[in-house]
Write a structure and sequence with these properties.
By secondary structure, the protein is α/β, with parallel strands linked by helices. It contains 18 helices and 16 strands. Helix 1 (39-59) runs antiparallel to helix 2, helix 2 crosses helix 6 and helix 11 packs parallel to helix 12 (341-358). The longest helix is centred in the N-terminal third of the chain and has 21 residues, at 39-59. It starts with a strand and ends with a helix.
């Protein structure tokens, strides 16, 4: 009988392969003409590798993943990290020990930030440290690959998003630490890589010689998957499969749309039969901005190719959401992430110009709304921007993701044209769990406290004739979706890979 280890499923799908430890310390696979001999040189090399990886990802249309890697390159170049290493060297530590102490201190500082999403970047700090450590030892930072050409199941105590992006793409991944709402899980879901969290490395070590089956939905790792006849579950991601409207068995239609950020995402949404776009994230291409908020021309240049690739239907464009770990360098030392009127007007004009040029019907969505007056203020800016362009203002909606706005959600529904539930932040804040807490999963939105907030929002929206949608990973979770249908949610927005499964589930209710 094969052994089954149980953890937490964080990215759906199934794959068979052999375990490969991330950054195992094999001899360098790509020798440098001048291998780094000191800490600054090692960090410079890591930063260059990150730059090269980001460039390769961007040329393949994976802008969101490229932004994550480029942010990691900034960490490798961070002056505070380097000064800490120099201080420990001056105190007499050997280079490898001095680097380890500096990384530990810097990661502890980042992990201690009040902003939970920003605190998650401590994982990336430690990952940069491990890469630099491997280079100083003359080892390959990317680790090895399984023998005989077998698919790789990447494992580690604390995998980072970059582990999935550099080198050959693994068939699946297993990380002892991490949460289902962290960067690792987000990238795994984006790439369609099954991911299981919470299984100790010591337990996995006993399976090192076996082919194993990773089920990212059940959250299991099964040994001896290659023994005898084994049927691998069909991929849950079926491009275009089940396209069309999602109508429940009693005749209620629920619009199922995609979340996108890049041209690649938009094309994938079209292939999967999405009814437009439920959430277009505009902040990801700007996470490396050094000198201030993007101007109008930058917004037009970024949005136009994405809008040109979206499937037919309404496209909900969220304004810049620089919060948590999605914070560009020009905001690194600032807590205020809402733009001033001029910066917001530049984006509103950029969105409307790109929509007009591509002929796409758009709606605007404001993130992190803490009071109904925010909607009133932005509606005035939007009206002025559209008047200057000779265009009709589009619908303007509000995200419900801050618990404090629930007390005013009726007033919010009166002034917004639609409401969209952001369950990642709402669930985290309502349950008092950090975004990297393993207990916080998309299924956590089925907690009674969160369901009460969802129900309250839907009631308020419908009382004012407003549509209410949910645009987070929870909408694709089988523990949450039935509640959304029961409570009267009008639309859900999920990753393109989840569209077919969500449509099928809605049709079964």
């Amino acid at each position: 009988m094969s052994a089954v280890l149980r953890g937490t499923g964080a990215a759906p799908g199934s794959a068979v392969g052999r375990l490969v430890a991330a950054r195992v310390g094999s001899p360098a696979a790509r020798p440098d003409p001048a291998p780094p001999t000191d800490i600054p040189a090692a960090l410079d090399t890591v930063a260059r590798h990150m730059d090269d990886l980001a460039g390769a990802l961007r040329t393949r249309g994976r802008a969101a993943e490229a932004d994550i890697v480029e942010f990691a390159a900034l960490i490798a170049r961070d002056r505070e990290l380097r000064d800490g290493a120099a201080r420990h060297l001056a105190a007499g530590l050997a280079p490898i020990d001095a680097l380890a102490e500096a990384v530990r201190e810097f990661a502890d500082v980042v992990a201690g930030f009040d902003d939970e999403l920003l605190a998650e970047r401590a994982v990336d700090v430690r990952d940069i440290g491990r890469q630099a450590d491997a280079l100083l030892r003359g080892e390959d930072p990317a680790g090895g690959r399984p023998p005989g050409g077998a698919p790789a199941v990447l494992v580690g105590e604390e995998l980072a998003a970059m582990d999935l992006l550099r080198g050959a793409r693994p068939a699946a991944a297993v990380s002892e630490r991490g949460g289902p709402t962290g960067h690792l899980a987000i990238v795994a879901r984006s790439l369609g890589i099954p991911l299981v969290l919470g299984i100790p490395l010591a337990a996995l070590a006993e399976l090192a010689e076996d082919l194993i089956l990773v089920d990212g939905e059940a959250g299991t790792v099964e040994a001896n998957a290659g023994a005898g006849v084994r049927t691998i579950p069909a991929p849950r991601r079926v491009p275009g499969g089940g396209a069309g409207q999602a109508i429940t068995r009693d005749g209620r239609r629920i619009r199922v749309r995609a979340n996108v950020a890049t041209v690649t995402d938009a094309l994938a949404a079209g292939e999967a039969g999405s009814e437009g776009v439920g959430l277009l994230r505009t902040e990801l291409p700007f996470l490396t901005e050094e000198f201030g908020w993007p101007d109008e021309e930058r917004h037009v240049a970024m949005l136009t190719p994405v809008l040109a690739a979206v499937p037919p239907g309404l496209v909900v464009v969220r304004t810049l959401d620089f919060t948590g770990d999605k914070r560009p360098p020009f905001l690194r030392d600032r807590r205020i992430t809402l733009p001033g009127p001029d910066a917001l007007t530049a984006q509103l004009r950029g969105v409307m110009r790109a929509a007009s040029d591509t002929g796409v019907e758009v709606a605007l969505l404001l993130p992190m709304v803490d009071h109904p007056r925010r909607i009133k203020h932005v509606r005035g800016l939007l009206a002025d921007a559209c008047a200057s362009l000779g265009l009709v203002p589009p619908p303007l909606g509000a995200m419900v993701e801050l618990p404090q706005v629930l007390d005013q959600v009726d007033d919010l529904a009166e002034h917004a044209d639609f409401l969209s539930l952001g369950t990642n932040d709402l669930t985290s804040r309502l349950l008092g769990l950090s975004r990297d807490d393993p207990r916080l999963t998309p299924a956590s939105a089925a907690h009674p406290t969160v369901l009460d907030a969802i129900a309250q929002t839907i009631r308020a929206g419908h009382a004012h004739g407003r549509a209410v949608s949910l645009c987070g990973d929870a909408a694709a979770d089988p523990a949450v979706l039935p509640h959304l249908v029961r409570l009267g949610c009008d639309a859900v927005s999920v990753a393109p890979t989840a569209l077919a499964g969500v449509r099928a589930a809605v049709r079964a209710y």
